[in-house]
Write a structure and sequence with these properties.
By secondary structure, the chain is mainly α. Helix content is about 60%, strand content about 0%. The chain is flat, with a radius of gyration of 35 Å.
């Protein structure tokens, strides 16, 4: 008679484990579908960027000019030199 309650308890645990696993499978399937949608969206976005670049005639042009306004200004530093605010004390011997 002691085996019957243990068998019932085992059946309940197995049923709970089975429902837990079914829930996990549902979540995994949902995540897999989301990942495939995200992957497809990323591919479409990448293709759209490539198409936009090929449509723009200036996409391959680069500007190699130097910024002359910064280079022509003299270097004036009004800020004090950076460094520690306090000086280290000498050790006494």
């Amino acid at each position: 008679m002691r085996l019957a309650p243990r068998i019932e308890q085992g059946a309940r645990i197995a049923g709970m484990a089975e429902s837990f696993l079914q829930g996990q499978l549902r979540r995994i399937r949902a995540l897999t579908e989301r990942m495939s949608r995200v992957h497809a969206y990323a591919e479409q976005t990448c293709e759209a960027c490539v198409a936009r670049r090929s449509e723009n005639p200036l996409a391959s042009a680069r500007d190699y000019r130097m910024i002359s306004s910064i280079a022509d200004e003299p270097a004036t530093h009004t800020d004090p030199p950076s460094g520690p605010a306090r000086r280290r004390r000498r050790r006494r011997r």
